Amino acid sequence: MLIGTFYFIVKGWGVTDKEAREYYAITILVPGIASAAYLSMFFGIGASDVVVGEETLRIYYARYADWLFTTPLLLLDLALLAKVDRVSIGTLIGVDALMIVTGLIGALSQQPVARYTWWLFSTICMIVVLYFLATSLRSAAKERGPEVASTFNTLTALVLILWTAYPILWIIGTEGAGVVGLGVETLLFMVLDVTAKVGFGFILLRSRAILGDTEAPEPSAGAEASAAD
């Protein structure tokens, strides 16, 4: 995450286009926040023990704090790319925040029925967010031209695939049925997070849809003379 953060900073250092700078600012924050969250978990901060029945579960609430900040930023990148209105952006981010908060409530619940109920609530919110991306935002991006549409579709496909894996891993992991142990669960969440954040940013910031002519090479003297002729 930290390597991704520094890479995006270096890559965007000389960008002067106002819109491109907005994308860089948002995208740099995503792995930066995630780096802090994972560092806290590494040092044992941001975790709590929850007793469920006769079992004590280790819940990393720092992970949810990470998602509460980073997933809205990822969605903001997509919303800016599609150029949708503020109401649409607010609705999208609001439902996303509800998804994360209800997932955390489920993770901290002591009754199995409550845990699975909140998981279902959170999953429904996720489906709403993904549906919104695949329909109205996709249509808005398509109207902006083929380059924007292509980038948006690639990023949306990445989000659809990766975000769908999160509730599945939750339900089979220690916070759900316990099929997967804590070590494997944490590793898989880490892989998903790195791909969903750094991979997302890498695709977005290499796209001509947002960079426009900001990285275009300067014309040679010969080319300038030809143009003048």
UniProtKB/TrEMBL annotation:
<feature type="transmembrane region" description="Helical">
    <location>
        <begin position="64"/>
        <end position="82"/>
    </location>
</feature>
<keyword id="KW-0472">Membrane</keyword>
<keyword id="KW-0675">Receptor</keyword>
<keyword id="KW-0812">Transmembrane</keyword>
<dbReference type="GO" id="GO:0016020">
    <property type="term" value="C:membrane"/>
</dbReference>
<dbReference type="GO" id="GO:0007602">
    <property type="term" value="P:phototransduction"/>
</dbReference>
<keyword id="KW-0600">Photoreceptor protein</keyword>
<dbReference type="GO" id="GO:0005216">
    <property type="term" value="F:monoatomic ion channel activity"/>
</dbReference>
<feature type="transmembrane region" description="Helical">
    <location>
        <begin position="116"/>
        <end position="134"/>
    </location>
</feature>
<feature type="transmembrane region" description="Helical">
    <location>
        <begin position="179"/>
        <end position="205"/>
    </location>
</feature>
<dbReference type="GO" id="GO:0009881">
    <property type="term" value="F:photoreceptor activity"/>
</dbReference>
<dbReference type="InterPro" id="IPR001425">
    <property type="entry name" value="Arc/bac/fun_rhodopsins"/>
</dbReference>
<feature type="transmembrane region" description="Helical">
    <location>
        <begin position="89"/>
        <end position="110"/>
    </location>
</feature>
<keyword id="KW-1133">Transmembrane helix</keyword>
<feature type="transmembrane region" description="Helical">
    <location>
        <begin position="155"/>
        <end position="173"/>
    </location>
</feature>
<dbReference type="InterPro" id="IPR018229">
    <property type="entry name" value="Rhodopsin_retinal_BS"/>
</dbReference>
<dbReference type="Pfam" id="PF01036">
    <property type="entry name" value="Bac_rhodopsin"/>
</dbReference>
<keyword id="KW-0716">Sensory transduction</keyword>
<feature type="transmembrane region" description="Helical">
    <location>
        <begin position="23"/>
        <end position="44"/>
    </location>
</feature>
<keyword id="KW-0157">Chromophore</keyword>
<comment type="similarity">
    <text>Belongs to the archaeal/bacterial/fungal opsin family.</text>
</comment>
<protein>
    <submittedName>
        <fullName>Bacteriorhodopsin</fullName>
    </submittedName>
</protein>
<keyword id="KW-0681">Retinal protein</keyword>
